[in-house]
Design brief:
By secondary structure, this protein is an alpha/beta fold. It is built from 14 helices and 15 strands. About 35% of the residues lie in helices and about 20% in strands. Helix 2 (about 25-45) packs antiparallel against helix 3 (about 55-70) and helix 11 packs across helix 12.
Length: about 425
C-alpha cells in the first residue's frame, strides 16, 4: 500500500517536527510510528477509512527505517548491497551492479521520499538542495560516494546519482581471465611502470578505467615512490611506497577548498617516481604539463570515446586552465609526456545476446611519438587493437617508437627480456 505508507510517513515527519523529537532517537521514533499505525488500524477497522493493513508490524518497521535510516534506499547507504552507481529518476530506482549490469530496484519509493533521503544525505555535509539551488554535486557517506542531484525546475522530476568509490584490487591475472586484456598487452603495461613513462587510460564512464589503473598499480615495483591524487580513495596504492592525497571541497563559507590542481602542483615539487591521478577533467590538466620537467612517470584517466579523442580532451582541458597558452605548445608538451594511451570500453547492452551487456575490454593500446618539427596534431601508432567486443586483442606488428623502446629495454634487459619479447608473446611480465 504505497499511498497509505506515504501518508503515514508524512504524518510521522509532521509529528517529529511539531513535538521536536530527535529523529535519531530510535525508541522515540518507534513509539511514534506505532501510535500512528495503531491509530490507522483502529480507524480503518471502524469502516471510516481505508482498508486495514495486512501486516501492521511490517509498516511500523518500514516507517521507522524511513526516519532512522534512508527508507527503501537504505541498502545503498549501509553497504548491504554491492553496486557501483545508484540512479533515481522520480520514483524509479535502478542501479549498476559490480559487473556493469543495470538492474531495477524492486522496493517501491515515492518522489517525496527520495527528496527526503537526498536532504538527509546533504545535511551530513552542510549542504542542501531546493528550488533556489536545484543542482548540487558533493561527496557524502564520509567521502565514500559522490552525490549528484538535479531537481525541478531544472529537471522535470528529481534526478539523483550516487556513485560509490570502491578501492579495487584487481590484478592483471584477473583481467586476463575476464578477457579484458591479453598477456602481451598486460606485459607491455607492466613494463611501462618500470621506468618513468606516461600512460593515459581513456573510456566512457563505467568502462573500467579505474579497474585497469589499479591492475597496473598492483603490478608496479613496491619501491616506486608514488603520489596518488584523487577526489575520493579509489586507487590501490597501499602496497607501494606511496602517499595518497585527497581534495577537499570548500566549507559552508566558501573557503578552505583544496583542488586536484593544488595537489598536482604540490606533488611535482616532491620528486615522485610516479604521479597518479584518479581522473583528469579540470584545471589539473595544465599542471600535468610540468610532469615531464619533473622527471616522473604519469598515470591518469580521461573520459573519451577513443585514444586520440582522449589526447585531444587532455589538451583542451589544459588550454582552458592556462593563461593565454597556445594550443600547439600544449599539444607538443603532451606528446612528449604521454607515451601510451589505453582505451577501454563497455559493451552496449543491446550488443549482447542477453541484453545486459557489461563486458569491459581494452579495445586499443596506442603509442604516442613526440611531435616533430612542424607537426601540429598527435600521431598515434596502434600497438594492440581489438576489432570488436569479444574478438582477440591482437598485436598489430608495430614496434614502440624507438626512443620509448630504448627506455623500456634499459629496464627489461637485466631480467633477460626485451620489448619485442613481450609484444611477440615470447615472454610475459603479467
Amino acid at each position: 500500500m504505497p499511498d497509505v505508507y506515504e501518508e503515514l510517513r508524512r504524518q510521522a515527519l509532521d509529528h517529529l517536527q511539531r513535538i521536536e523529537l530527535d529523529p535519531t532517537d530510535a525508541d522515540g521514533v518507534l513509539e511514534l510510528v506505532r501510535r500512528l499505525v495503531d491509530g490507522y488500524q483502529i480507524e480503518s477497522t471502524s469502516g471510516a477509512g481505508s482498508p486495514p493493513l495486512h501486516d501492521p508490524s511490517a509498516m511500523v518497521a518500514r516507517l521507522a527505517r524511513s526516519i532512522l535510516a534512508y527508507g527503501p534506499l537504505t541498502p545503498f547507504m549501509d553497504d548491504s548491497l554491492r553496486y557501483e552507481e545508484l540512479i533515481v529518476h522520480g520514483d524509479q530506482v535502478s542501479y549498476i551492479d559490480p559487473s556493469g549490469r543495470l538492474i531495477a530496484h524492486p522496493e517501491p519509493v515515492s518522489e517525496a521520499e527520495v527528496t527526503h533521503v537526498v536532504s538527509k544525505l546533504l545535511a551530513t555535509v552542510g549542504a542542501s538542495v531546493d528550488e533556489s539551488r536545484p543542482v548540487v554535486q558533493t561527496q557524502v557517506l564520509d567521502g565514500r560516494a559522490r552525490l549528484g542531484v538535479v531537481m525541478p525546475p531544472v529537471a522535470d522530476r528529481i534526478d539523483v546519482t550516487l556513485r560509490r568509490y570502491l578501492t579495487r584490487r584487481e590484478t592483471f591475472a584477473e583481467l586476463i581471465g575476464w578477457d579484458a586484456i591479453d598477456p602481451a598487452g598486460a606485459s607491455l603495461l607492466v613494463a611501462m611502470l618500470r621506468t618513468p613513462t606516461g600512460v593515459l587510460v581513456t573510456g566512457q564512464p563505467g568502462a573500467g578505467k579505474t579497474t585497469l589503473l589499479n591492475a597496473m598499480l598492483r603490478a608496479a615495483p613496491p619501491s616506486l615512490r608514488t603520489i596518488a591524487c584523487e577526489e575520493t580513495p579509489e586507487l590501490s596504492v597501499e602496497h607501494l611506497h606511496a602517499a595518497r592525497w585527497r581534495t577537499r571541497p570548500p566549507g559552508p563559507d566558501g573557503n578552505g577548498e583544496i583542488s586536484l590542481r593544488d595537489l598536482v602542483r604540490m606533488s611535482l615539487g616532491m620528486r615522485p617516481d610516479l604521479l597518479v591521478l584518479g581522473e583528469t577533467r579540470g584545471a589539473e590538466a595544465y599542471e600535468i604539463t610540468r610532469a615531464g620537467n619533473a622527471g616522473c612517470g604519469m598515470l591518469t584517466t580521461v573520459h573519451a570515446n577513443g585514444a586520440r579523442q582522449g589526447l585531444q580532451a587532455l589538451v583542451s582541458t589544459a588550454v582552458m586552465a592556462g593563461n593565454n597558452v597556445a594550443v600547439d605548445q600544449v599539444r607538443h608538451v603532451f606528446s612528449s609526456i604521454v607515451d601510451l594511451v589505453v582505451h577501454v570500453a563497455k559493451e552496449p547492452a543491446a550488443a549482447s545476446g542477453d541484453g545486459t551487456g557489461g563486458r569491459r575490454q581494452v579495445m586499443e593500446i596506442v603509442a604516442v611519438p613526440p611531435l616533430q618539427g612542424s607537426e601540429v596534431d598527435f600521431t598515434v601508432e596502434p600497438i594492440f587493437v581489438r576489432d570488436e567486443f569479444g574478438s582477440p586483442l591482437r598485436w598489430t606488428g608495430t614496434q614502440l617508437p624507438s626512443e620509448l623502446e630504448v627506455r623500456v629495454n634499459r629496464v627489461l634487459r637485466p631480467v633477460g627480456r626485451t620489448v619485442s619479447d613481450l609484444l611477440e608473446g615470447r615472454a610475459v611480465l603479467a
